[in-house]
Amino acid sequence: MKLVVLKFGGTSVADVPQIKKIALKVKEVVNQGYKVIIVVSAMSGVTNNLIDLVKTTSESLSYPEYDVVLSTGEQVTSALLASALNNINIKARSWLGWQVPIISDKSHAKALIEEIKTDNLLEFFKKNQVAVISGFQGISNENRITTLGRGGSDTSAVAIAAAFSAERCDIYTDVDGVYTTDPRIVKSAKKLNLITYEEMLELASQGAKVLQTRSVALAMKYNVKLRVLSSFEDLPGTSIIKEEKNMEKTEISGIAHSLNEAKITLSGVPDQPGQAAEIFGALAKHSINVDMIVQSSSINQEATDITFTIPETDMIIAESTIKKIQKKICFKKFITDTNVVKISVVGNGMRTQSGIAKTMFETLANNQINIHVISTSEIKISVLISSDYYELAMRSLHSAFGLDV
Ligand code: ASP
Ligand code: MG
């Protein structure tokens, strides 16, 4: 069976005229002889409104109920699109997560997909052409609806493409592909024709918003042919692929930025074994993701400073968590800074080329931009800087790495 998965994001299904246009686009693919699985997001803005709504009901949110409310956004769009397809004589129907079924664990609001059963849809495709699946949702083994975390429809689409061994998974969105950096900040940003899974994974996890990070990790794991395309213009988009030897070689493929960062410094931490384990263990218990970490070496072997970053949205809970263990750890000061941004340069070229860190640090120095924290991976260098300078940093790095031309 020739089968493709097409995913449409919120702006692509923002209203009924838009949904009718998508239906025509799907018809073209059906006419090429494909069975089509469509994965839809909620109409743009709907999920945010549902979150505001459910929050007004109770001070302590029940996440299972939160998931039932949030999943309605995708329920609406799947049925609207199926109806628009029927209207142009395409044999289609809507499928909710539990009807497929898409089975997830029970971590509500951030559930992980465990299994996608294919029997129901394979039976359906014997007589029909298009299945329109509500993205973002699953069903737990407790028979409750779950959601996969913000942006989770991308992950639904890739997981479905893997489960059905689809020929490809096309992610339709409001931009025409993956860019070297955010074009709203750097005017000279360029669309990339190709990018590797590893690079896309780093860019997504460092703040590029075009794909949910988990979806890229899944695509890499299952070798799903992934493309990002515009729903509004007929353009080739960006293909996300395995690294090939003869790929066009540039040092850096992209520059990402993340505004949701906060820096915490614990000063005067006694220099003894087990302190870091104590601090980061306490944060992990509250599912706070610690990203960059530096520890100064103590001169007199008595006390050190530990600095680390967390999502700014976790600041309140991190502060109370750390203060609870202050007596045990005996650090002197708790210092926070939320006026920080993380800038990351990413490129497979880093594996083989030296001097990338030098170019990055020199460029920032020439612009009088101070670096608070640095972290690296094999194909990424991240720096934490003051948010006053992040646009300047992005523009000058984009130019320094030859991405302007
Ligand atoms: N509607 C959900 C969200 O806004 C899921 C998605 O669109 O991917 O996060
Ligand atoms: Mg999205």
In short:
The protein is built from 12 helices and 18 strands. By secondary structure, it is of the alpha/beta class.
Give an overview of the whole structure.
This protein is 33% helix and 26% strand. The longest helix is centred in the first third of the chain and has 25 residues, at 63-87. The protein has helices at 16-31, 46-55, 63-87, 119-125, 153-163, 197-205, 213-222, 275-285, 315-324, 326-329, 356-366, 390-400, and strands at residues 3-8, 35-40, 92-95, 102-104, 113-116, 130-134, 137-139, 145-147, 169-173, 194-196, 226-230, 238-241, 254-270, 293-295, 303-310, 333-346, 371-377, 380-386. α1 crosses α3 (63-87), α6 (197-205) runs antiparallel to α7 (213-222) and α11 crosses α12 (390-400). It is globular, with a radius of gyration of 23 Å. β17 (371-377) and β18 form a beta hairpin. It has a domain at 3-174: 3-Layer(aba) Sandwich (Carbamate kinase), CATH 3.40.1160. Strands 3-6-2-1-9-11-12-10 form an eight-stranded mixed sheet, sandwiched between helices. With 405 residues, it is of the alpha/beta class. It binds aspartic acid and magnesium ion. The site of aspartic acid has 12 residues, from α5.
